[in-house]
Amino acid sequence: MKRILIFNAGSSSLKYKLFSLNDEDNLVLEKKGEVSKIGTDEGPKNHKMALSLLFQGFGQQHGFLNKIQDLVAIGHRVVHGGSKYQQTTLITQDVISDLKKYDKLAPLHNPPILEVMQQIYNVSGTKEHRAIPNYAVFDTSFYADLPEVTNIYPIPYHFHSEDGIERFGFHGLSHKNALNSTKELLKNKFKTLISVHLGAGSSITAINDNKAIDTSMGYTPNEGLMMATRCGDIDPGIILYLMQHKKMDVEEMSELLNSQSGLLGISEVSSDMKDLLYLAGYRVEDNTYQVPTRIKSLPEIYRKKSKLAIDMFIYRIKKYIGAYDAILVKTDVLVFTGKIGVGSSLIRNMIIEGMDHVLKGTKIIVVKTDEELQIAKEIIPCLEK
Q1: Which pTM was predicted?
Q2: According to DSSP H, which parts of the chain are helical?
Q3: What order of strands is seen across the sheet that includes strand 211-215?
Q4: Residues 77-85, mean pLDDT to the nearest whole number
Q5: How many Å apart are CA 320 and CA 330, to the nearest integer?
Q6: CATH class of the domain whose range is 2-144
Q7: What is the C-alpha separation between 201 and 205, in angstroms, rounded?
């Protein structure tokens, strides 16, 4: 019996799953844990503290790695590895140091991911622990073979050839897992698929013959759909205007586009879709949801802004589905995944409403993504080398 431990650090969350691997290379979930709301008033201060909480939930302190019998590998999800890291990579200190250069391209994700990676790498390499290899698995790997018409931006070509500016794509682990789950569910009886991952970060991927041919996120995870705090597609001229006339510097602009826009920016109340559904008078499909006190008695204007935020969120998803359907010619399957995509039938129905002319004959399914399982699957071939 072999075991693989997976860590998945998000911008405000940290999850782990422990899988056992039998002789037939089948993965079985043995244990899991999650810490959320990191960096907020309701959660731990940072990912380092969150990691300590996960260790406690595992029933151990920092020495817990040595207590897991038959542990053969530890996996980490990495959002951005640029064009250099497109395959599952054995982690060394040099790799961790090198990955830091992509922090500015994924400021919400890469820094906390590398913080957790460094902590686990340090622990798994001490004398008190046996040598346990750590592997980085990249969100961008699924898009390594995008066609040039998708991959290259319409700016002077030398920025692509010399500086590596191109569409990397993100949420690849989620979209690949959604593809594999759909193949199992539909017995491979489809050719084209549009995968819609909706959560705090949202993206859409067009897939033909099991390969991604386009995706909404690009050089950074900020392109594409409107998200919880990220703007998605906007006119670049807006950025120039704000920097020139509002005297915003690069750091202020990054904060605006990544942390102050999207659902939060339009509603001016919350980045949480559940809060906005409540304020807009829609049904919240979560029995555990508790309405925050601060939003219970807000003026009517914020209810209108919350509805506008939802409408904009839906509208932009519809646009991408229509565009990708045109590229695919015919969409066999539309699959929803991610916390919002799976958790809200209301949002799903609002998206497909009025799209019969586009989705005629298209199977519409919902798949709960399992990024940790996909990471473990990507690591298995490395163990056989």
Answers
A1: 0.91
A2: 47-57, 93-99, 110-124, 148-151, 158-161, 172-185, 236-245, 250-259, 262-267, 273-279, 300-328, 338-343, 345-352, 356-359, 371-383
A3: 211-215, 203-208, 192-197, 333-337, 363-366
A4: 91
A5: 14
A6: alpha beta
A7: 13
Q: Is residue 99 very low, low, confident or very high in pLDDT (cuts 50, 70, 90)?
A: very high
CB 226 within 8 A of CB 235: no
Strands 333-337 and 89-90: unpaired
Question: How far is Cα 242 from Cα 231, in angstroms, rounded to an integer?
Answer: 15
pLDDT band at residue 23, thresholds of 50, 70 and 90? confident
99 alpha-carbon distance from chain centroid: 18
Q: Are 212 and 143 in contact (CB under 8 A)?
A: yes
Each domain of the chain, given as residue ranges in start order, spans: 2-144, 172-366
Cβ distance 10 to 110 under 8 Å?
A: no
Q: Which residues contact 32 (CB under 8 A, 6 or more apart)?
A: 15, 16, 17, 18, 372
- SS3 label, residue 87: coil
Domains 2-144 and 172-366 share a fold: yes
**How many CA atoms lie within 13 Å of 106's alpha carbon, on the beta-carbon side?**
31
* Lowest mean pLDDT across 5-14, 301-310, 362-371: 5-14
The fourth-level CATH superfamily of domain 172-366 is ATPase, nucleotide binding domain (3.30.420.40)
**Predicted pLDDT of residue 312:** 98
Residue 385 is predicted with a pLDDT of 65
Q: Which of 98, 139, 214, 249 is catalytic?
A: 139
Three state DSSP letters for 203-216 = EEEEEECCEEEEEC
139 is catalytic: yes
Q: Look up residue 54 and give its amino acid.
A: L
